[in-house]
Amino acid sequence: MNENDDPVRTGATIKALREAYGWKLGKFAVAVGTTHPHLSNIESGRKRCTPEMARRIADTLGVPLAAITTSFSVEEVA
User: How far is 42 from 12, CA to CA, in rounded Å?
Assistant: First the structure.
């Protein structure tokens, strides 16, 4: 993650991927080592996603880190 990443876009991407993979917010928060409210704040763009959290999220979802941390489209990253 860098300072140019948009926290709202990043959060929306995380939420969309989480839901696409069938994870409920509470269970996913536990799986990535955070709390339900903290993850909710990340997904809504109220909190920035740290590089460490982004890595844990990507690893848990089984997606490349770039899928959630860059402003490139999925086609550009894949």
Answer: 9
49 secondary structure, DSSP code? P
How do residues 30-70 score in pLDDT, each as one tens digit?
999 999 999 999 999 999 999 999 999 999 999 999 888 87
Contact yes or no for 68/13 (Cβ under 8 A) = yes
Alpha carbon distance 75, 78 (integer Å): 5
The pLDDT assigned to 10 comes to: 93
Task: Tell me the two tokens of residue 26.
Answer: 């509470």
Helices (H), the chain: 7-20, 25-32, 36-44, 51-61, 66-69, 74-77
Token pair listed for 76: 């550009």
Are 28 and 58 in contact by the 8 Å Cβ rule? The answer is: no
